[in-house]
């Protein structure tokens, strides 16, 4: 009843308020429809880095170079050296060569409209180096030496670092982060 009394004081009837709210709903729906149809004609082009197979690579003297280099590139909004390198080399790892060729003091800061020279250089590939933990452990016990850790011992004993938990359980270790040289560990087989 308090709402009716308030409306009587403001001299608004329920019919007037309903009409105002209805008009508000129509305006909101109109704005949503307008925004929807405004974006219908535009096609979103996803930014997709070049895949290694999309860049034509030529071989010269046993080395592999992208075709059409050297060239220049005008920086666009949202560009960074990794993406530019992927576009021309099929690998982002050549960003270092682009930065060096253009004497960039800060490779993380390139400006829209800036002209970059894309050098003719060999395509860089990631280098994966396997970690070495020493000789394999074949026995059922192992004496800890300085620098050992359970992960490395598990890799050497089982070929799987995640099995360090089995070593911890078999030896009832309270804190698996603390092992000392001279400790003799049981290696469950």
From TrEMBL:
Domain LysM: from-to ranges: 71-118, 140-187
Pfam families xref list: LysM
Gene3D superfamilies hit by this protein: LysM domain (3.10.350.10)
InterPro entries: Bact_Kbp, LysM, LysM_dom_sf
Transmembrane feature ranges: 16-37
Keyword Magnesium among UniProt keywords: no
Keywords linked to the UniProt accession: Membrane, Transmembrane, Transmembrane helix
Keyword presence, Transcription: no
Protein name from the UniProt record: LysM domain-containing protein
Taxonomic placement: Bacteria, Candidatus Shapironibacteriota
